[in-house]
Amino acid sequence: MSGDSISIRDATDDDLTAIQAIYAHHVKHGLASFEEAPPDIAEIAHRRDTARSSGLPYLVAEQNGAVRGYAYASRFRTRSAYRYTVEDSVYVAPDALGAGIGSALLTELIIRCTGLGFRQMIAVIGDSANRASIGLHTKHGFAEVGLMRSIGFKFGRWVDGVRMQRPLGEGDTTLPE
After folding, report:
1. Is the pLDDT of residue 176 over 80?
2. Rounded distance, CA 74 to CA 69, Å?
């Protein structure tokens, strides 16, 4: 499967079932998300619509006609001083991990958020042992900026959170317009 081309595009209503299934797997079986019950398709649609109404990208990766992953940007915080900072989220179908899907999604998300004038991107990674996500973000220029110990409790244990950050465009080297 990794030899087949990956296309990245905006998510549509037709993608919501696949997006919900991918996310539900990560909620039920992993620590990347601190949610404990998977949201339904209506909630996934609401989250996508919230991102899009804010002018932020909500993307899917398609391979061989199937959605294999998705990614989106959200406001890092709502206070106005954070207006140049976004947070990324990337999820890949469990049978497509390691095939370059996450990398393709994160690349496009960075490009689009830079084009929108954002200057910083933050990753909040569930589980300090999540080497795949930490490695993906490191590959794309993120640096670890913080470890929050035992901030979540899931699957009967305490879970750390890792914060990573990368500049977008000129970052903080110039003032925004």
Report:
1. yes
2. 17
